[in-house]
Specification:
This protein has 94 residues and is α+β, with helices and mostly antiparallel strands. It has 2 helices and 4 strands; from the N terminus they run βαβββα. 32% of the residues lie in helices and 26% in strands. The two termini are 23 Å apart.
Length: 94
Amino acid sequence: MSAKYAFTKGLKEIRFLFCQTSDQSAGIRTFLSRAYPTMKKNNPHTPIMIREASGTEPKVFARYEYGREEHESLAGLSDKEVEDKVTGLVKRNI
């Protein structure tokens, strides 16, 4: 699991946006409570930001070198599906 969360060198920041209570955000809340400590341990110098706001659609944003950003919607996804989307973003070489 730890190698899965070793980010590429080009990744400068990852941001998670979601609602604290909605069913659409349940998967991302479960994922973060399980995976955040491992991600932070393996990437201590990469900012991992978590933004909770009522009614917010769950999304993950990845910022790479030269200001390039990618994002994925995480609405209604399970913990495993969220993990797959996040892994895809943090492993991209852009």
